[in-house]
Amino acid sequence: MEPLWHILFFIQVHALFFNTDNLKNIYAVTIENQVVKYDSTGLLLHTYSNKLLGQPTSLDVSNPLKLMVYYKDFNTIVWLDNTLSEISETNLSSLGIIQPPVACLSQDGDFWVYDEADQRLKKINSQLQVIIEGATLQFISEKQFQPYLMIEENQHVYVSDSSLGVFVFDQFANFINKIPVKGVTYFQIKNKQLIFKNKNKALIYQLNSMGEYSSELPDTAMQMRIESHRIYLLKQNQIVLYPY
Questions:
Q1: pTM for the predicted model, two decimal places
Q2: Residue 192 contacts by C-beta under 8 Å, 6 or more apart in sequence?
Q3: Which of 12, 109, 201, 237 has its CA 20 to 30 A from that of 96?
Q4: What is the per-residue pLDDT for 1?
Q5: What digits encode the pLDDT tens for the residues 105-144?
């Protein structure tokens, strides 16, 4: 039985994409290339922009005290604190890594990138040393790997490719398996489940049993997230929240 939906509240914002943390804070990257942060009630708390770097490619808020904003076009990661004040910048060119398509935080404070030049997943520490380097992915897939989003969760790294599926690696960058779900761009890993939007449905893929079920969404959306018994939908000019 599908749930009966009612709007909890909405945030008026023209966003390219958004993210949420486990404290129910909401973060969005706007069409003006700003990073904005709202609290659990939708109150605007902080903003950040860097006109020199342009549009952020991704925003990792898995550590609410140290956010990772990746600017692919300038090969730069900006680290922000919980008030969206800049802590530091990391330019990946010094490592010989040029414009990796995806990057994400590691739960131990280091970070991951996918180096497209040699098709390897690499883990980098705060001293900008490559401490883990996986095998080349050219032996895993016959097609060109085109990653869209990368997340670390429960000592596993998940990378989506909308045409190939979601690739899973262990904490040492060893390839484990590929989850054969197509059309995945933005996704979440929660409670051993892969959660993503497909058309007007929320799809839940059980990582242990490989079972899959879906739930109709209350409205069309560009992006969806589920967090702390709430469902968030990104529409053209607002983020709408429903109890879930």
A1: 0.93
A2: 154, 206, 207, 208
A3: 109
A4: 44
A5: 999 999 999 999 989 999 999 999 999 999 888 767 667 7
| Residue type present at position 150 | M
Distances (CA, A) of 175 to 54, 62, 153, 161: 33, 22, 15, 15
Cβ 11 vs Cβ 49: under 8 Å: no
List the one residue out of 198, 139, 136, 119 whose CA is nearest residue 165.
198
Domains along the sequence of the chain with CATH: 9-243 (2.120.10.30)
CA distance 72 to 59: 11
Which of the four pLDDT bands, split at 50, 70 and 90, describes residue 3?
A: low
- Those residues whose C-beta lies under 8 Å from the C-beta of residue 197, and which sit 6 or more positions away, are 186, 203, 217, 221, 223, 224
Residue 153 half-sphere exposure toward CB, CA atoms < 13 A: 18
- Separation between Cα atoms, residue 79 and residue 222, nearest integer Å: 26
